[in-house]
């Protein structure tokens, strides 16, 4: 009986959030361990299916870094990053596209096996996003920035209980193929479809004030403080594009952004439907540690 009462208490705690978010669009970037560990993957996708059944309209933007790295190593190609962005040659952009297409198909299949409705939106087939060369293209190669998001195409796919699954590879305005950072893609899509939340799943607890010290987790971080932490190199590497993606989304009207640990069981439900939440929330106004 006590266990059942606790479950009921959890549902009651979630009720105001369910009421507030019903009918709203959330954009979730899905990658890291949540893609490769079967149990973690199942938990994340269960959370997203649950969200779709309580009235939230999730859009899933996925990466595929671990699988791309594995494929590069098989082919004897160098795995190289600059400030969290993968250096990509023209040939490697084709490899990235093939890998992410497989990842996309697998995610769609897994969502359906969990009772959800998924819509594959491979960007090359659906023309969901159009890229332009990155401003640092001389260093990064065929890495793109988003020039246009076809928001109507995405919105039409966000039917009740339908979950669009988007891969971040795109043809450019110059008809070349570009690899786009999944965090950046998720941010631009969130802005275009007027999402209320952008959630980035990663493999760390969130943003730490002291590197490697999880007790220094910053629970809420203001944009101005995020810029300072990047300048002081407290935020570095792969966390930089995540933080910048959140900041860009906030500037363009997305209400809340979150960087959370996708390795924690049901991390999305904990962040969205509980009072305490987890990870780091990046906001426009004054933050707190």
What tags apply to this protein structure?
289 residues; alpha/beta; Carbamate kinase; 8-stranded mixed β-sheet; two-stranded antiparallel ribbon; globular
List the helices and strands and how they pair.
Elements: H1 2-21, E1 25-30, H2 33-36, H3 38-53, E2 57-62, H4 65-74, E3 81-82, E4 85-86, H5 90-113, E5 117-122, H6 123-126, E6 129-133, H7 137-140, E7 144-149, H8 151-157, E8 162-167, E9 169-171, E10 177-179, H9 182-192, E11 197-202, E12 220-222, H10 223-231, H11 239-251, E13 256-261, H12 267-273, E14 280-283
Helix pairs in contact: 4-5, 9-11
Overview of this protein structure:
The chain has 289 residues and is an alpha/beta fold. The chain has a domain at 2-77 and 94-115 and 182-283: Acetylglutamate kinase-like (Carbamate kinase), CATH 3.40.1160.10. It is 45% helix and 22% strand. It is built from twelve helices and 14 strands. The chain has helices spanning 2-21, 33-36, 38-53, 65-74, 90-113, 123-126, 137-140, 151-157, 182-192, 223-231, 239-251, 267-273; strands at residues 25-30, 57-62, 81-82, 85-86, 117-122, 129-133, 144-149, 162-167, 169-171, 177-179, 197-202, 220-222, 256-261, 280-283. The longest helix has 24 residues, at 90-113. The chain is globular. The model has no long low-confidence stretch (mean pLDDT 88).
Series of secondary-structure elements, N-terminal to C-terminal: HEHHEHEEHEHEHEHEEEHEEHHEHE
Major beta-sheet overview: 8 strands, mixed
Q: What is the strand tally?
A: 14
> Mean of the pLDDT scores?
88
Brief overview, please?
The protein has 289 residues and is α/β, with parallel strands linked by helices.
